[in-house]
Design brief:
Blueprint lengths: L4 H13 L2 H8 L3 H15 L4 E2 L5 E2 L1 H22 L10 E7 L1 H4 L3 H5 L5 E7 L5 H6 L5 E4 L8 E15 L1 H7 L6 H4 L4 E3 L6 H10 L7 E3 L3 H9 L5 E4 H10 L3 E2 L6 E10 L7 H14 L5
Parallel strand pairs: 3-4, 3-5, 7-8
Antiparallel strand pairs: 1-2, 5-11, 6-9, 6-10, 6-11
Length: 295
């Protein structure tokens, strides 16, 4: 299937900007031209690509097609690097699925080490990020899945260590009898979102039971730490984020020597292996500095 590059660019701009007006401004076109290009592309592929609204969002097919456009742009930029007569390589957009805790800790250092790109980061749990790669919505994903997806390669980056933490006041209120399946089942727990299972894994691993404590949903890595520090609940926080709080006593571990290590893998298409090489190398360098070794 031959796709019109201008129509594909219009789709990508709509999804980046969240509106037809924004896409028109970015591409230097009228809103009518953007609408016409999108309509022509939807007619060409035979499916709806954009949910019209505020903001405008991509359908499953639209996200997949936009990711295809990013792949083409990345490969073309890579080619331009080897043919100086083509001019300087343009900035390319990297749409990646990453978990919030990596973004709050070790990942920004890797992104800063990848010049010449614009980042479009999709936040998803490490248990589920690979699903977006499998659906073709992103170019790569940080995941806890060691087995490569079909057509992909998986590279072990390291372990992000979590500590079950709470404020001293919270511990005094809820764990006077110690941290047991009975006491933890009544103590308010923090959860990032419905996909977050870290607290459940920690309870099963260190208390040997499956319990369902009452929980707050706090979908922010830094907000999660703040809520823990303020005694709203207990939760699993990345050791990197709470090291100072643990040192000063603002937070305390629920149990001594009871860390939970979450392995992280970088999965991306083998077809894009060379084009994504700088990304892979930057991720590995940052992971070596800030994560615990894999294995």
């Amino acid at each position: 299937m031959n796709l019109d590059p201008q129509q594909l660019a219009a789709l990508c701009a709509i999804l980046r900007c969240g509106s037809f007006d924004g896409a028109a401004a970015e591409l230097g076109l009228t809103q009518s031209a953007i609408s016409q290009r999108l309509k022509a592309l939807e007619t060409r592929v035979g499916v709806q690509l954009v949910h019209r609204g505020q903001p405008s969002t991509g359908t499953e097919a639209g996200l997949r097609l936009a990711a295809h456009g990013d792949q083409v742009a990345l490969l073309e930029a890579r080619l331009t690097e080897h043919f100086t007569a083509l001019g300087p390589a343009p900035q390319t957009r990297l749409r990646l699925a990453v978990n919030a805790d990596s973004l709050a800790t070790w990942l920004p250092a890797a992104l800063a080490d990848i010049p010449g790109h614009l980042f479009d980061l999709v936040i998803d749990d490490q248990d589920a990020a690979h699903d977006r790669l499998m659906r073709g919505e992103v170019l790569g994903a940080l995941t806890n899945r060691p087995k490569p997806l079909p057509g992909c390669e998986a590279i072990a980056l390291g372990n992000l260590r979590y500590i079950a933490t709470a404020s001293p006041g919270f511990v005094a209120r809820h764990f006077t009898q110690g941290v047991t399946p009975e006491t933890i089942s009544a103590a308010p727990m923090l959860r990032f979102d419905a996909k977050d299972r870290l607290q459940d894994q920690w309870i099963a691993s260190h208390l040997g039971r499956t319990v369902t404590p009452p929980c707050h949903m706090i979908p922010s890595a830094t907000g999660f730490v703040a809520a823990t520090r303020l005694g709203i609940g207990w939760g699993l926080n990345p050791e990197i984020l709470v090291a100072d709080d643990l040192a000063t006593g603002a937070l305390v571990p629920l149990l001594p020597d009871a860390a939970l290590d979450t392995p992280l893998y970088w999965q991306s298409s083998r077809l894009l292996g060379a084009a994504l090489g700088p990304v892979t190398r930057a991720l590995r360098r940052s992971a070596r500095r800030m994560l615990y070794p894999p294995g």
